[in-house]
Design goal:
419 residues; disordered N terminus; three-stranded antiparallel β-sheet; alpha/beta; 12 helices
Length: 419
Amino acid sequence: MRLRGALALLVLLCIHGIEAGGDGFVRVHGTRFVLNGNPFYANGFNAYWLMHFGADPAQRSKVTSALSQAGGSGLSVARTWAFSDGGSNALQYYPGHYNENTFQGLDFVLSEARKHGIKVILSLVNSYESFGGRKQYVEWAREQGQSIGSDDEFFRNPVVKGFYKNHVKTVLTRVNTITGVAYKDDPTIMAWELMNEPRCQSDLSGNTIQSWITEMAAHVKSIDGNHLLEAGLEGFYGASSSYRSSVNPSGYQVGTDFIANNQVPGIDFATVHSYPDQWLPSWDDQSQLRFLGSWLDAHIADAQAVLRKPLLVAEFGKSQRDPGYSGAQRDAVFGTVYAKIYDSARAGGPAAGGLFWQLLAEGMDSYGDGYEVVLGRAPSTTGVITTQSRRLQVLARTLVRARKTKRAQGKGAKGGNGR
């Protein structure tokens, strides 16, 4: 089965006529990511803080240090915020008005990521109040005379949607002051994310968020045809997949729909987040691990059979603040996620990588939320991460060699026939 899966991916690459070389943009072919004609696996991390540290000359070294250590561990993708709405040192301090110094912090992040061979996923707004998010957008609209009830009007109010569309355009058309490359033309960026963990509790049918994703995906693609796009979903199932209702952790209906939302035109790959320690706090550690395995199995199966798109585990982790925490428990969570990804990838399936939450550099203890990983400070977890990077790199190289061998054999056969 695994061999057939790998051969299927090989055939897919050949059918599409992908050659070595290319423009450096990550693409999607079938259920896989491809970079310059080769399979691309996104073993990586979240680091929401990069832009703000990049904007502070006294802290920039931590950006460089984190990206350098990540690259040295074989990590290939960083997910971070391209938003900060309202408040001190915000990126966007009022609709359409930007702090140039903060924007230059993001320029620096992209420049450093390119130096260390790391692709970047940029999220465009937060669902939550931290860093402003949809609450700040709604408040801005109220200040302009809009009569708005709940923060869920972020998804419906035309003025608020206009603010968001303007932010999207501003970020996508930004020209990096260090590299001189417009963001929409920068292959360092792997993908855009519409929103970090969208939720709309006032419409559990999923229709509101479905409509918003449809509108905003079209808007992004009208500006930028180079980059991939994902919605930012946690992966909760909704009305379109009632057969999966038992997969959701109890009580988690949040107005999103993993199947329908990811079928929107313009959404190139699916995402899933996983925090059984948060979602199921009364369950013991082994029960949470079993849930994690089942949760990932369901999403991998649906990405393959229903969505026919790659699946990225865009957030996962284990908090050191959980009762009875041990490093072995965190390693078990990472190991479970990584095994599901690797087994799917080896079989030619849709699991295309995982991004743990969250990477910090040395000297950032105050930014710890329990889930932080400082590479080298936790040798066991660092080893688990590095091993996954190596396994995926070997798998990618094996597929490339197999393709070259198949191509050489094909040329030999033609030569033998006198052609």
